[in-house]
Amino acid sequence: MYARGLIMRKVIDILNEKEKEEILELFEKKQAMENLAKVINAETDEQLFQNLKNDYLVLMNEYTAWWSNNSEIKGWEKGNLFIDFSTNEVVMDE
Known about the structure:
The chain is α+β, with helices and mostly antiparallel strands. Helix content is 55%, strand content 22%. The longest helix is centred in the middle third of the chain and has 29 residues, at 46-74.
């Protein structure tokens, strides 16, 4: 456990490289789509916006499924979990 600012953080697991690559790919796609959504909208390009929206929903299902499956298999505690990609650690804010 370590402190970062006023938030206590607890390392609850360390991912192997395959697990890290799986969630990193989903995370990067999520970030890219969220950034794209900032510059396009339904008024400027309705079809592109609709495609982005549909793709984002599919991606979020995959992203959520990754977290749910790993949490269940590995018995991760419920809470505000995130991955520190530099260390492969699954970390929980307390």
